[in-house]
From TrEMBL:
Pfam families attached to this UniProt entry: F-box-like
Gene3D superfamilies per UniProt: 1.20.1280.50, Ribonuclease Inhibitor
Annotated segments matching region Disordered: 31-69
Species per Swiss-Prot/TrEMBL record: Trametes coccinea (strain BRFM310)
F-box domain span: 74-124
Descriptive protein name: F-box domain-containing protein
Annotated InterPro entries: F-box-like_dom_sf (IPR036047), F-box_dom (IPR001810), LRR_dom_sf (IPR032675)
Amino acid sequence: MPFPFKRSRQQEPAAFPRSILDAVKAFYATERREPQYKPKTKHRARTDERKTAAHSARHQHATHTPARAPVRRAHRIMQLPTEVLAHIFVLGAEDNNMFPVIVSHVCRAWRYVALHTPALWRRITLDGSLTMWGQRIQRAKACTLDIQLTPLVAMSHLAYYNYVQLCMHVVLPYIHRWRSLEVRFVGYAPFLWNAALSGCCGHSSTIEAPQLRDLTLVYPENDDTKEYLLFNGYAPRLRRATIQGIRLAWSPSLFQNLTYLDYTHHGFTRGAQAASEVLYMLQVSSALEQLRLSFPWRGDAASRYALSASFSRIVHLPRLRKLALHVDGPDIPPALTYMLPHLSFPVLRALYLVSHPPQQQGQQHVEPSFPHLRTILKALPRLPALSHLHVAHGWLDERFLASFLTLLPYPGVPHLTLTLEGSQVTHAFLCSALRGAGRRIRSLALVRCDKLTAEGLVDVLNRLSGIHLQSATHVYPTITSLYIRDCASMDWRSLKWLTTMGVALKVWEDGHEVDLRYARAKKARF
């Protein structure tokens, strides 16, 4: 089922058998879960002795086989080549910071492999044990490092600042070996970016990051307007960036090779000025393939929603395939409507119009749509290659969606996968929004549409197909795939007959896919 793109593992072989890694973890878990027997009383000892004597022959095989199982698994794992075992350890370290320490304490052979695998120790998660992380840097030898600083402990402002500065001093001498840097701050303290990044700024070759591939800087509560030029403007291998709450100098030598960008504007500028900044950034990072944009809400007045004509350039993104426009306020930020007319997406495949779901205030609560959605229709550039559209929460308006669908090109056959998420989706909403788009939609996905019933959905399918599907024979509906995820009012069991008409039906409940072979059961099976 198509949903917003997620981050994938870095440099992990697609076909590597994860079952081997599971076997290593299962072996260690079994060894740690040895039963702890309590001292037996005199009466209990006699009773157990009689039971053992009576059933020793029958239970002899059963008692010895489980005891030998961990040994057999260990023997099979020991027979693996050292290179394979080392690769398994590296994969396990991606999910658990302490996994290298765990495997190095199992046996001498594993300890030898762990200590002679530098990539196993590359992940440095800075916390209170700075001495331990310093030792792990030494064990990583010349291997590139993944640096993570995400303090969660509540401190005073001065203590927070000093703690961040102390953590960064541990890893700054190895900046030329950084493969990734992730800094996330929770809570507020002044000048935290200065404490974390002052050692990364300047005009010296010693602070360049030639191995850096992934950069994550997130501090939503930042109020420091200082602009930072990182790594002397030199990180030629940087491909992924997640930026929120910081003002960066968008140097071409630093960001021109990005393929993934998750950018939340810092909010220190607004309207046309903010749009101009983002347009320059996109012009520098024109090789992007995935982009997520968000502008913080600053209470802009409705009078500021006029489209700007001050920009003369068009920014082309010839490789962009996925675009997500995220809104965290009650309306569309004006900077977004200023920016969109000056963008070109010739190969854009997927567009996600998303926002935060509102807080539930009762069963009768209705999610409001954004008041100025009509400005988006005027600002949107042509989307000749669009094949997936995801519309959620505040973007859900039947008139906006109906007009948007009519603007999309029609290649002659159904080609669009439409995903709708939110409680605004009802029978009346679908009838109004999809009235002229039946020939364009190939797949329909419904996510948390709590007010939509199965009967209403079938009526919408009948309208889109132009016939009564229940009584038709040898007729196939225009929608060939139907996805239903966590729709509380929809009885998915009554839709099973759609599969006989060539409709691929998939259902999720509580985050798990339902096995439709048990559609008649009272309880869902997964």
